[in-house]
User: Fold this.
Amino acid sequence: MTGRDAPASAPVTFAVVGGFLGAGKTTTLAALARELTARGRRVALVANDQGDELVDTRLAEAAAGWAGEVTGGCFCCRFEDLLDVVTRAVEEYGADTVLAEAVGSCTDLQATVVRPLHRRYGARFRVAPLLTVVDPARFAAIGRAGEADLAYLFDRQLADADVIALNKADAVDPALSAAVRTALAALHPRTPVLTYSARTGTGLPALTETLTAPTPAPPAPDAAAAAAPAAREAPTPAGGPGGRIAPAAPAGSGDHAGPAGPGTTTGRNRDLVIDYDRYAAAEARLAWLNHTAEVRAPRSAAGFPSARWAATLLAELTAGAALVGHAKVHLTAPDGRTTKASAVGDGRAPAVDADGGAMRSARALVNARLVCPAAELDAALAAAVRAADAAAGAATSAPAQPAAFHPAYPRPVHRLPAEPPPR
Ligand SMILES: Nc1nc2c(ncn2[C@@H]2O[C@H](COP(=O)(O)OP(=O)(O)OP(=O)(O)O)[C@@H](O)[C@H]2O)c(=O)[nH]1
Ligand SMILES: [Mg+2]
Assistant:
């Protein structure tokens, strides 16, 4: 019996957190990790991305006692890698709580990640409700962006949620916040909405309780599914033209298939209606870039102003994009100081989340997810680095050329339908 199949002495709390690019998932998980650590838990964070060299992993390392990552695809397509990372968190660190951040362009997480974990590994994990983190400004703007498939993906993330976590309460006009809550109640009337700010901590205790409250035990050991998993699973996408797949159960209308009834109040026990061709088309609209560079201050003994370099780079990089998912920069100086900035397409100047001050040299990580052709993103990055160097008196070199790409068609390893509602 391998470590990851072995029953743990006490179930590890496992929470998957989803939500659109830039919604505040990493900031939320960092805040939850600090809160839960203060309550005596041993918390591990797991980042996830289509590529490697992740800003989020750097942030997770700073926020939790243990941090890991799943790279090269989302949790649903890399399910075994997710299990391996979580197993290491438990064996190496003794984690009793694992918080895993899904890729911001990923959806259908109930069927592809939450249910497989709950049903097949329910003796090891107490799988928390699925949170979908939402930026109210994005919610208000996504329908007007002229990106119908991305708006569809955003809506499917909401429909998949057990709990909608409405973030950034500190930054949102109260009237907009109220309007968003009204719209969410109309669109997803059975899904609870928690309003909070990951930045200030307002509302965070309620979110913490949601993740740590007891959840129903998994169904009796899923021997049939373990013995013949394919027979119990919904069709997996074929990919490419004609790759459209049915919902994980016979199609109903609207958000979910099958009848509503007692026990169907969470996303976990409802089947999401989703068109994988539209989901894949939405992801393919995004150009995806993870890039590493060395930044130096050739003319100043004091160093270059790292926040100015980062903010200038992001402003230039995102200027021409049809839609900004999230572009972020993380700089680390040899003495450990860090600078971090983000642009999330909210019409504001890039946010400097951490300012490590002047740096003689730094290792820079750039992660960008924008709507534009991948080749244009490569060229935009080169121009943005030149502008940042000029603004900050810096000189940047990179070990490799930027190599943006478009995410591939999602092919989840598992796709489990909901259990019938209890009678
Ligand atoms: N004002 C405010 N900003 C926030 C809050 N939470 C996150 N942000 C900011 O939103 C930006 C994106 O936050 P992240 O936590 O990186 O978002 P994410 O959802 O993890 O992004 P991806 O992993 O790229 O999908 C950063 O600049 C954060 O500082 C909040 O509660 N209030
Ligand atoms: Mg993140």
